[in-house]
Amino acid sequence: VLTGIGHETDRTIADEVSFAEFKTPTACAKFVVDRVEAFVERLDEAWQRVATQSTQMLTLVAARLDNVAQRVRTGVLAALQHSSERLAVNANRLQKAPAACFAASASLLDDIADRLRLLDPVHLMKRGWSITRLSDGRVVRDVRQVKKNDSLTTRVANGTVTSTVGETKPTT
User: What's the pLDDT score for residue 83?
Assistant: First the structure.
């Protein structure tokens, strides 16, 4: 309760119970206007602080969001780069794999061919071995296959020898 009745010397009951008393209604109105203006000013200052803090908070959150986005972008790019490199390595391996497989197979075939050449009867005959056959073409593997007067054909490296069996001697 405010009073501004305009009595300078008289004090009224309203003056006694009021929060503040003023000499004139204009002074009372000025007090109210000043208080409202001070309140509005404090409200404006509070609003400015809220706006400033909100702007700062939004700026901070935006910076953090940009930071997270950059880290995600960097992580994705790094993962893509790593995957691309692995893909290139695997593609390179796949390109080289058939050639390596063919090279290994060719080497194995060469080894087998060398072994076959070593086992070729002509090669063995050049080393002193021979193949002896009966007159019916069967290869002689056992002395018991041969009898006296059988005709034998023996093949050596540079030709054949025909012979007649005089005797056989089995080893014990």
Answer: 97
